[in-house]
Write the C-alpha cells for this entry.
Amino acid sequence: MHLLEPRAQPSQIMRWTAPLIAIAATLVVGSLLFWALGKPALASFQVFFIEPLTSSNGWSELLIKACPLILIAQGLAIGFKARIYNIGAEGQLIVGALFGGGVAIYFEGSDSSLIIPAMVLAGAVGGALWGALPALLKTRFNAEETLTTLMLTYVATFILSYMVNGPWRDPEGMNFPQSVMFGDSALFGILLEGSRVNTSVFITLFAVLAFWLFNAKSFLAYQLEVGGQAPAASRYAGFSAQRTIWFSLVMSGLTAGLAGVGEVAGPVGQLNLNISPGYGFAAIIVAYLGRLHALGIVLAGFLMALIYLGGEAAQVSLQMPAAITGIFQGMLLFFLLGADAFIDNRLRTPI
C-alpha cells in the first residue's frame, strides 16, 4: 500500500514546471480522445490550436476572451494565496454585469460620456458586494466560503433570469430573455477597426500591473501569503484573519464584477442569459495554471482563451460536441492538481 508523505521542502523549480507537465499530459490524453472519436489527432490539433490563430480576427478574438479570464484570475489569486477559496466568481461577474447593465438601461437614449465610467463603477461595486456576502457569512457564522460563493452563483443566475424575463426585457425583443441593445454611449470604444477589441482591455492591463506591484511591494500581500501558508505564525504575528477574508473575497468579487461590465458593455452589448461562457469558473484554472503570479496568469489566460476558440473551431470543422471545451479545461486542471500533489508529497511504501 502506497501513501503520500509531505515533502519537507517541495521543489520550486518543479512547481513552476508543473503547468508544462499538465499541458503535455492534456495533449497526450487529448490525442487519445480524438482517436477514440475517430478523428486524426494531428489534424484535430491543427484545428483546435493552430487554425484559430491564422487570421487577424482570430488573434483579436483571443484577446477578447483572454481579458476577462486574466482580470478575474488576478483577483482570485489574492484569496488563493491566503487559502480563501472563492469559486463563485461566475456569480460575481453576473452581478457586476447586472449593476453595470442597469446603469445603461436607466440612461437609455442618453449621450453622456459619463455612462461608461458609471457602469464600470457600478459593476465593481456589484461584484464587490456579492463577494462581501460570503465574507460576512464566514466571519460571522464561520460558513465555508467554497459553498457560499458557489451557491450565490446560482442566486445571481436566477436574478439575471428574472430581470431579463421581466422588468428589463426588451419590449421589441420578440419575447426573448434579453434587455435592449445598449447605445454607443454605453459601450466601450472599439480599438481595432473591424474587430471586437475594445477599450476594456485597458482595465485588464491596469489590473495586471496593479496586482503585480501589490504582490511585489505590499506588506498586506505578505500578510495574506503568511496567513495562507502558516496560519499559526500569522496569528502569532498579530495579522488579522478577518481582514484577510474580507479583503480577499471583496477584491476577487470586484475584479469579477469589472469583467462582467466588460462583457455587457463590450462583445455582448446587452444583458442576456449568455453573458459569460463560464469565465468565472475557468479563471480558477487560469489562476492556478499561472502559479498565482500576475504575469503567469497572463500567459495562462491566453492559453485558456485559445481552448475556448479551439473548442468553437472543433464544433464547426470536426463536428465535435460543445462539451469538448470543458473536457480540455477539466483535463488541464486534473493534471495540474495531480502534478502539484506529487510535488508537495512523495510516495511512501510502508514496510
About this structure: The longest strand covers residues 3-6.
